[in-house]
């Protein structure tokens, strides 16, 4: 269970004190504000989100005020009440927007505002409850954590992760050394991932996930983790990936990253779009609110 | 429900002519739904392209399963051996199930190993979607790859169990040319298992209580398949039930595979019903076709949990 929670937190990118800590500044050359790192939108839509609703079903242990014993469960059944353990979470409530080729869109919002859920829906991994997402090509989420197994060696995990992302054996062979070199874990690649420090694990996961190229790319924040040097390296890699991809969505709590890399920001609040527009404007409003 | 808000967002989306519906805009630029079920033959092709993932995933799970124990991979051999010993003591010696059955150890072990293969595939299949939601919500691949990988994992385990079984059999029954049929029967059973685990994967993905219910269903199936007794002896000769009851029991998929496998391993001592082999072929084809079709029908909904 603890492992699962850990994995989920990695997927969601909510490791404490990673991307949100204010006093860690690892971007060597802050570019002048207002700079647009990617070409202006060319006018071709690549992602259309049309009144999207996402509803999760969550099964959890009953909370304090509900009795969790068999008798009360039986009573509930006789009274034909629904299972209290099953809760429906309406994570995204009617979001619509159009993303264009060349857009780098930042998505900001508090924890639980539906950012990661929206990304998953765009990637076609979560079925919409209502509405639709239309895309050009196959958007992919940058991240392979869920496919990896802690008990296995780094070596096996690299192969497994690459196959999970849909590579062919030839591609895996070609990328293997590159991944090992980039992650910088050297001989540890022969050891099970459970023996890695959290930083090493994060480095290897990032190295695997970023080994593939994508059309429409969705980045969830906690990717750039690890020590100072590696964060620099991974920022660079994200930049490269971003430039080669047609459209990029970036979820981050780090305002600097958003302002530096995006030409448009969507502010999600409780599953709805609160603001959508120029990074400076949106971020100013977001910081006030 | 949140029309006002989304209308605002619409207006802010900008860059497109006044009130064109978004669905139309998407169509005009040839965009496709992000989550759509591919045509059946396309789906099968995509699945074939993921064969390396399935194999690696299955092997990895088998390796990681025993990696925390001191004896490690040795457990892959020890587990079936210990199981065999317990079944023999329990059913052969204490409960006296051996009465009237020639070469009871081989009879029992064949039934047990063959049944366990199907049982474990089906049980694993039922959990393959509901237990892997984080993977399904993170990466793109035909979802059938998961139940398939779980069945491959069980097949790898069975390979070891079969090795153990054949060693025990050789001790009492000399190998014959019939043994060449063993891979054929196992292949048919694997096809059936794939189909059954695909069906259970979809059922398990939206029926959470399935995992609690399955052990009971499996135990009933175990008793109905004549794993440690001869169906003919107990049902017709012992309980004086009509012959058709025994025939129906023999027709169930697990019993079909068990009976045929016993016929191969102990040709002198065992007489399976004539239709057993036909049952094996029928169940394999039926389960496979139906399983793929049934699983594929819900392909785009597996991420919701």
TrEMBL record, chain A:
Signal peptide: none
Residue ranges, annotated region (Disordered): 1-43
Transmembrane segments: none
Keywords from the named record: ATP-binding, Nucleotide-binding, Transport
Family annotation (CDD domains): ABC_KpsT_Wzt
Matching SUPFAM superfamilies: P-loop containing nucleoside triphosphate hydrolases
GO cellular component, one term: membrane
Keyword Transport listed: yes
An annotated Gene Ontology molecular function: ATP hydrolysis activity
Domain of life of the native organism: Bacteria
InterPro entries from the UniProt entry: AAA+_ATPase, ABC_transporter-like_ATP-bd, ABC_transpr_TagH-like, Bact_Polysacc_Export_ATP-bd, P-loop_NTPase
Residue ranges constituting the ABC transporter domain according to the UniProt record: 75-287
Entry keyword Coiled coil: no
A Pfam family hit: ABC_tran
Family assignment from sequence similarity: Belongs to the ABC transporter superfamily.
Name recorded for this polypeptide: Teichoic acid transport system ATP-binding protein
Automatic annotation (TrEMBL), chain B:
Pfam families listed in its UniProt record: ABC2_membrane
GO terms, biological process: lipopolysaccharide transport
Membrane-spanning residues: 74-98, 104-123, 144-171, 177-201, 274-296
Molecular-function annotations in GO: ABC-type transporter activity
Membrane-related topology note: Multi-pass membrane protein
Subcellular location field: Cell inner membrane; Cell membrane
GO CC, alphabetical: plasma membrane
Span of domain ABC transmembrane type-2: 71-298
Keyword Cell inner membrane (UniProt): yes
Main location: membrane
InterPro entries attached to this UniProt entry: ABC2_TM (IPR013525), ABC2_TM_bact-type (IPR047817)
Family classification: Belongs to the ABC-2 integral membrane protein family.
PANTHER family with a match to the protein in the record: INNER MEMBRANE TRANSPORT PERMEASE, TRANSPORT PERMEASE PROTEIN
Protein name: Transport permease protein
């Amino acid at each position: 269970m603890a492992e699962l929670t850990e994995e989920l937190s990695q997927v969601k990118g909510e490791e404490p004190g990673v991307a949100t800590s204010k006093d860690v500044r690892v971007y060597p050359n802050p570019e002048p504000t207002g700079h647009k790192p990617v070409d202006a939108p060319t006018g071709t839509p690549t992602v259309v989100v049309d009144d999207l609703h996402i509803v999760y079903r969550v099964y959890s242990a009953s909370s304090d005020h509900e009795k969790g014993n068999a008798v009360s469960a039986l009573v509930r059944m006789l009274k034909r009440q629904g299972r209290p353990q099953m809760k429906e979470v309406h994570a995204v409530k009617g979001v619509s927007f159009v993303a264009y080729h060349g857009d780098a869109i930042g998505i900001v919002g508090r924890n639980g505002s539906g950012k990661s859920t929206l990304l998953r829906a765009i990637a076609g991994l979560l079925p919409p409850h209502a509405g639709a997402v239309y895309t050009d090509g196959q958007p992919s989420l940058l991240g392979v954590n869920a496919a990896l197994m802690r008990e296995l060696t780094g070596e096996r995990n690299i192969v497994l992760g690459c196959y999970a992302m849909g590579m062919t054996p030839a591609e895996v062979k070609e990328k293997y050394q590159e991944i090992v070199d980039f992650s910088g874990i050297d001989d540890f690649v022969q050891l099970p991932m459970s023996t890695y420090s959290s930083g090493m694990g994060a480095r290897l996961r990032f190295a695997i996930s970023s080994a593939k190229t994508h059309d429409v790319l969705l980045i969830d924040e906690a990717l750039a983790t690890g020590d100072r040097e590696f964060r620099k390296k991974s920022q660079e890699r994200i930049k490269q990936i971003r430039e080669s991809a047609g459209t990029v969505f970036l979820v981050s709590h780090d305002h600097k990253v958003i302002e530096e890399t995006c030409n448009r920001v969507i502010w999600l609040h409780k599953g709805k779009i609160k603001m959508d527009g120029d990074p400076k404007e949106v971020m100013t409003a977001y910081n006030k609110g | 429900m949140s029309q006002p808000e989304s209308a605002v967002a619409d207006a802010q989306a900008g860059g497109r002519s006044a009130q064109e519906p978004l669905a139309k805009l998407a169509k005009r630029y040839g965009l496709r739904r992000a989550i759509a079920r591919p045509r059946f033959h396309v789906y099968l092709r995509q699945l074939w392209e993921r064969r390396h993932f399935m194999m690696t995933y299955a092997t990895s799970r088998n390796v990681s399963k025993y990696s925390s124990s001191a004896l490690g991979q040795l457990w892959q051999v020890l587990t079936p051996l210990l199981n065999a010993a317990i079944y023999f003591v329990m059913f052969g010696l204490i409960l006296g199930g051996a009465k009237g059955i020639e070469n009871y150890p081989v009879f029992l072990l064949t039934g047990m190993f063959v049944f366990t293969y199907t049982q474990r595939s089906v049980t694993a299949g039922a959990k393959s979607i509901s237990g892997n939601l984080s993977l399904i919500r993170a990466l793109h691949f035909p979802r059938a790859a998961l139940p398939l990988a779980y069945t491959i994992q069980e097949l790898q385990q069975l390979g070891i169990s079969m090795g153990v079984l054949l060693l025990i059999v050789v001790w009492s029954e000399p190998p014959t040319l019939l043994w060449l049929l063993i891979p054929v029967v196992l292949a048919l059973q694997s096809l059936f298992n794939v189909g059954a685990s695909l069906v259970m994967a979809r059922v398990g993905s939206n029926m959470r209580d399935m995992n609690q219910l399955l052990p009971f269903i499996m135990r009933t199936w175990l008793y109905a398949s004549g794993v440690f007794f001869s169906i003919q002896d107990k049902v017709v000769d012992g309980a004086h039930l009509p012959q058709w009851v025994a025939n129906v029991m023999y027709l169930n998929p697990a019993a079909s595979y068990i009976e045929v496998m016993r016929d191969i391993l102990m040709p002198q001592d065992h007489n399976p019903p004539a239709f057993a082999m036909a049952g094996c072929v029928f169940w394999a084809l039926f389960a496979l076709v139906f399983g793929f079709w049934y699983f594929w029908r819900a392909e785009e909904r597996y991420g919701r949990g």
